[in-house]
Design brief:
By secondary structure, the protein is of the alpha/beta class. 46% of the residues lie in helices and 19% in strands. α2 runs antiparallel to α11 (259-293). The radius of gyration is 23 Å and the shape is globular. The structure holds 3-deoxy-alpha-D-manno-oct-2-ulopyranosonic acid.
Length: 334
Amino acid sequence: MSGRIARRAVLGATVGAAALAACLAGFGPALAQDKVTLRLSSPATPTDQRAVALTEVFAPAVAEFATFEPHWNATLFKQGTELEAIARGNLEMSITSAQELASLIPAWSIFTAGYLHRDAEHQKRVFAADFMTPMKEEVESTLGVKLLTVMYLGRRQVNLRVDKEIKTPADMAGIKLRMPNTDAWLFLGSALGANPVPVAFTEIYTALQTGAVDGQDNPLPSVRDSKFHEVTKQIVLTSHLVDLNYLAISKKVWDAFTPEQQAVVQKAADDAAEAGRRKQLDLEAELEQFFKDAGLKVYTPDLEAFRTHVQQKYLESDLAKDWPEGMVDKINAL
Ligand code: KDO
């Protein structure tokens, strides 16, 4: 008896919902449901400055016609699978890396090379340079992904749970260094002289805590944000990669915007990138002291030895065979 009542109640609710939906459909574009939802998936934490800037600057700027729906901590897609998800139409946005692009389009490995970008401003100039147009177009035509802007992640530093003092790449021999799981990242780990071990960003803390790895590399704000300093003893200021990410959007979604909406999205992306960049640079400047106060050793190794070793490894590598002719010189000249 109670089952019958329950069933009728559910049916009634269904009919009611269907009728309401049909009724609302008639109102068309005036309704909020017509806004496009921009789901973004990223392993970044919600307190990461790129995440903060996208939430505080990008989202409100596009709110009239789009709902920004971020999924941080890789809760929607696993790190490194986002580009494929966009290409398949399962995701609208991501904060992708040159390393992820390089695993699909080898020429992009040029931007994974250690000691290539000089600083945040250099990254911006490179991204805006004419020689980037064919690179960006290839990403659009092969992956259906538009790269909106470049986001500054910061200078990557070696962060170890072991005591051993590191002066040169030779001192890194035998160190199990966590790297993200793509060929370009693993190559960087070995170019630093270490034994690279692939681990997803969200698993680093546990890998350090359990000793599955001896260390990891990331910019200082990421180290603090994800509390890696709780499970490590030292930070070696190698600054081996001035790291970046690209804010990426589905080309199909982009093409469906009006030219006016595209201009709004582009400006919102650039403004968010700029806001994040400023905050990230400030944090980098102040965090050295924070880690010293937390009891970690923080010091600069023989940078010339690291630079020479790493650059040599890249220039001799198979990766370099896929780099567009003359591009390293053009990047250096900017
Ligand atoms: C990381 O996995 O070490 C890395 O720093 C790589 C970056 O390209 C980027 O994916 C980043 O993680 C995440 O956004 C988390 O900060």
